[in-house]
Each structure stands twice: as structure tokens, then as C-alpha cells.
Amino acid sequence: MKPIVDLNKKRVCDVSADGKVVEIQRKDCVTRITANPDGTLNIIHERTETQPA
């Protein structure tokens, strides 16, 4: 995955090497966007397990 940064040098998302998957993580929520061969998108939202400190 290649990190993508905005104009403020903040990491916004990661893009897969083939460019077909974008992953956005905000706190404990991961959004994964994948491209289908017909040009449509699959958008999946998942919560990540937080580890107790």
C-alpha cells in the first residue's frame, strides 16, 4: 500500500499497488473501497478492535 498525503503533509489514505483498492482509516473505523471490472465500486466499513493499554 502506498500512502497518499494532502497539501498539509497529512496522510489521507493508502492505495494498493494495482490501484484498485483505497483504504481510509479514521480512529477505529476502516473504510475499504475496491473497484470492480465494470467500473462500479464496493465500499466496506469495518471497526477495528482496539487493544486495551
Order of helices and strands: EEEEE
Strand order of the largest sheet: 1-2-3-4-5
Helix content: under 10%
Alpha carbon gap, first and last residue = 27 Å
Q: State the domain count.
A: 1
Flag low-confidence runs.
none
What does this structure look like?
By secondary structure, the chain is mainly β. It has one domain (2-47). 0% of the residues lie in helices and 55% in strands. It is built from no helices and five strands. The chain has strands spanning 2-5, 11-15, 21-26, 29-35, 41-47. It has a five-stranded antiparallel sheet, with no helix packed on it. It is flat and about 40 Å long. The model has no long low-confidence stretch (mean pLDDT 91).
In brief:
By secondary structure, the protein is mainly β. The protein has strands spanning 2-5, 11-15, 21-26, 29-35, 41-47. It has a five-stranded antiparallel β-sheet, with no helix packed on it.
Notable traits:
53 residues; mainly beta; five-stranded antiparallel β-sheet
Set down the secondary structure blueprint:
Layout: E1 2-5, E2 11-15, E3 21-26, E4 29-35, E5 41-47
Antiparallel strand pairs: 1-2, 2-3, 3-4, 4-5
